[in-house]
Design brief:
alpha/beta, 2,3-Dihydroxybiphenyl 1,2-Dioxygenase, domain 1, four-stranded mixed beta sheet, three-stranded mixed beta sheet, 7 strands, 28% strand, globular
């Protein structure tokens, strides 16, 4: 199998209007779709797709605990910007020896992180 491209990453939410506003206004992600299934552009190769599982016969059982790493040019600067918008981070920015990571959660507890490798 050859994967050509990542089309989207799904994130389950419980309140579509709240989440749509948070990803658009708080994170500042460019929105490319709205309505029942809003999408947000992530860099040059993927979209984050919000889904309310109850709208398609499912249920919200738990938030995603494995973070989606959002590559930014400067983790410290991006963190400062998001903190000024009310985003609460989980602990201090972590230096792994090859990258910096700053984890946080959306309003439903889905984990995300700011990320930057030293060499990229």
């Amino acid at each position: 199998m050859h994967v050509e491209h990542v089309d989207f990453i799904s994130v389950s939410v419980t309140d579509m209007q709240r989440s749509e506003a948070w990803y658009r206004d708080t994170l500042g992600l460019p929105q490319s779709g709205d309505g029942n299934f809003p999408e947000f552009k992530l860099g040059d190769n993927a979209f984050l797709y919000l889904i309310d599982p109850t709208a398609i016969g499912g249920e919200f059982s738990h938030p995603n605990s494995a973070p989606i790493a959002l590559r930014v040019s400067d983790v410290a600067e991006a963190r400062k910007e998001l903190e000024s918008r009310g985003v609460e981070f989980v602990g201090e920015t972590y230096d792994s020896g090859v990258c910096h990571m700053a984890p946080f959660s959306d309003p439903d507890g889905n984990r995300l992180m700011l990320h930057r490798r030293y060499a990229s």
